[in-house]
Amino acid sequence: MATDINKETLVEMVANKIGQTKKDVEIVTDAIVDVITDALHQDRKVTIAGFGTFKVTHRDAREGINPQTKQRITIPAVNTPKFTAGKRLKEAVRSQKAANSTSAAEASAETGTGEAA
Predict the structure, then answer these.
(1) Which of 3, 29, 31, 69 lies at a C-alpha separation of 20 to 30 Å from 113?
(2) pTM for this structure?
(3) CB 58 within 8 A of CB 79
């Protein structure tokens, strides 16, 4: 299983890919996050072609039940960020998933156990 990528790892990977210093890439990464955050705060949509769209969705206030006391409560309205993957990102994830499934099936067939090795 692959390991997760945090900000530090992402910065290092991008720096190596484009031949820039980690410090410079970190400055750009922080600026991108700040610009997206500010745009969402202003209720603006941010679209990065092929990657995806960041936008704000609104959830109305609603009634709920406190599971501990069984008392009715009002859950307040809230704005929340939402990300929708773009076509290229979806296709990349799907093709990776399909490749992993094929590899597991092939390993299962090779071992004859019905389970992936």
Answers:
(1) 3
(2) 0.73
(3) yes
